[in-house]
From TrEMBL:
Taxonomic placement: Bacteria, Thermotogati, Deinococcota, Deinococci, Thermales
Source species: Thermus composti
Alphabetized InterPro entries for the sequence: DUF815, P-loop_NTPase
Protein name, per record: DUF815 domain-containing protein
Pfam families: DUF815
Length: 341
């Protein structure tokens, strides 16, 4: 076990309010080498946990006496940290196993948002859109949230593709789902698509439900990532775990960079096969939501919305000039409003 040794080691940890040594040791238990095995414990795993709890309890008492410290954290402790600390103080391996089954090992026990670039990185304070930040596309947002709530409640739900013009709020709508109770999200970087299998294997063991977020998705049909994603979307025997739902945004309806034109009748069957292969990926998303470009009226409404007041005639004219080279979109509306704020 990797127990913290000195007070300076505590400064690298994301500790909650309260006595820091206890919560630092609780986090060590959530990071233990046997933490994932404890989700399906065997007698030998329980023996290992028992030994580490006995050692941890003694070392915790030593650290507290040698280096008495006040609170180092600013946030409240999570239920997982409180329960892990209680299991340590009572030296109860069964209680610690229950903590891991309920909350998962670190970092899933502490955080709700993550970034995956081949390795998993927690995002302690994700930047979430305000409820009033989204404007327009009410029907699309309602369908997105209804599907998400079905998934979070354990009912069947559909992998979702949000596509349309740039700046229309597709990514903002997807990220807003983290406001829902029980939601967790992993944002997958494009370069990490080839490593999804290892991530999904780990997520499938956890009690949580995850949105797997693929932003601005655009794939090469000859690339390895394209085939990894297609197989994940019901194209393989394994598929995605039942506690994972895919959310993808794209400016392309068919998600591919080089689709080309339709083959002519009588052309080589291989050309038709390649076309169907590229179309098959987008068709594997059960819910497809379209975000068309802003028109003039919605753009001006969005500017006023961000300012929190009606526009004057002069401001309307200035806003239209601002969008002349940029186009009408929610992003441009927000940028122009910032110039007036």
């Amino acid at each position: 076990m990797d127990w913290p040794q000195t007070p300076t080691q505590l400064l690298d940890l994301d500790l909650p309010q309260g006595e820091p040594w206890g919560y630092a040791f609780a986090q060590s238990l959530l990071k233990a080498p046997w933490a994932w095995r404890a989700l399906r414990p065997t007698p030998g795993i329980l023996d290992l946990i028992r030994l580490d709890l006995e050692e941890g309890f003694l070392r915790l008492q030593e650290r507290r006496e040698a280096f008495p410290l006040g609170s180092l954290g600013e946030r409240p402790p999570t239920p997982a940290e409180e329960a892990a600390l209680k299991a340590l103080l009572t030296r109860d391996p069964e209680a610690l196993v229950q903590v891991l089954k309920t909350h998962g090992p670190w970092p899933f026990a502490l955080y709700r948002a993550f970034r995956f670039d081949g390795a998993l990185h927690p995002i302690p304070r994700p930047r979430l859109p305000r409820p009033d930040e989204l404007l327009g596309y009410e029907a699309q947002r309602k369908a997105l949230e209804q599907n998400a709530r079905r998934f979070l409640s354990g009912r069947p739900a559909l992998h979702t593709l949000l596509y349309g013009a740039r700046g229309t709020g597709k990514s903002t709508a997807a990220k807003s789902l983290l406001h829902l109770e029980g939601a967790r999200m992993v944002e997958v970087e494009p370069k990490a698509l080839g490593h999804l299998e290892s991530l999904l294997e780990r997520l499938s063991l956890l009690p949580h439900r995850f949105f797997l977020f693929l932003d601005d998705l655009s794939l090469d049909p000859e690339g390895e990532a394209f085939h990894h994603l297609k197989a994940l979307l019901e194209g393989s025997l394994e598929g995605a775990p039942e506690n994972v739902l895919l959310l993808a945004t794209s400016n392309r309806r068919h998600l591919v960079r080089r689709l080309g034109g339709n083959p002519l009748p009588g052309e080589d069957p291989k050309a038709w096969d390649e076309l169907q292969d590229t179309l098959a990926l987008s068709e594997r998303f059960g819910l497809v939501l379209t975000f068309p470009p802003f028109d003039r009226a919605l753009y001006l409404k969005a500017v006023a919305h961000h300012l929190g007041r009606p526009l004057t005639q002069g401001e309307e004219e200035e806003a239209l000039r601002f969008a002349l080279q940029r186009g009408f979109s929610g992003r441009v509306a927000r940028q122009f409003a910032q110039t007036l704020a």
